[in-house]
Amino acid sequence: xxxxxxxxxxxxxxxxxxxxxxxxxxxxxxxxxxxxxxxxxxxxxxxxxxxxxxxxxxxxxxxxxxxxxxxxxxxxxxxxxxxxxxxxxxxxxxxxxxxxxxxxxxxxxxxxxxxxxxxxxxxxxxxxxxxxxxxxxxxxxxxxxxxxxxxxxxxxxxxxxxxxxxxxxxxxxxxxxxxxxxxxxxxxxxxxxxxxxxxxxxxxxxxxxxxxxxxxxxxxxxxxxxxxxxxxxxxxxxxxxxxxxxxxxxxx
Length: 252
Known about the structure:
This protein has helices at residues 3-20, 26-62, 66-91, 101-115, 133-151, 185-200; strands at residues 99-100, 119-124, 128-129, 156-164, 167-174, 204-209, 215-222, 236-241. By secondary structure, the protein is α+β, with helices and mostly antiparallel strands.
């Protein structure tokens, strides 16, 4: 078993162990945590909706310039996504409509570029999956956050979306330290969240050394039959530096 496979197995084992090795007192604790999470999600939906409405009102009532309008639209979109994620936790819908993985990926990359100073390269082809959009966004946000943090403010991150037989393949690579050293803190939690979400969708996660020098995490999800491409392969979007500051804040 090579190091990449060992790391992938270790991440998945961490997720399953956290769910399976319960002592006598832990089920009650898990129930309490679930209740608190649901209460938190319930209470976040209304403020998120208010932020979205206020951002839209600022766009229509104050006639801001184009740059400010774009920022306000991003704020509204982020607030809407918070509400979407909370709703997914609360409702866990049984019926899920097809979503465009490529479109959600492009949006997630645009948000990441506001926080990250380095270069984000994108190669995105049209792919449709049958996964709740809030789950896809959580996977994307954790992949991109981990990669940008590992690459550092002067590094590179590459995001790829492609159709691989009957599966959608989402890969995020970085120019960080790769498999050297333990994955701890926010990175470890991000990997655990990714593993749990992907396994819950019936997908797989693979981690290996990236040709950029760091880590490459590849998520594979079942996808719907794709329409015949018009005019060849999907768009290849060139990477560019983001405007984010080194501390992760957005320039004003």
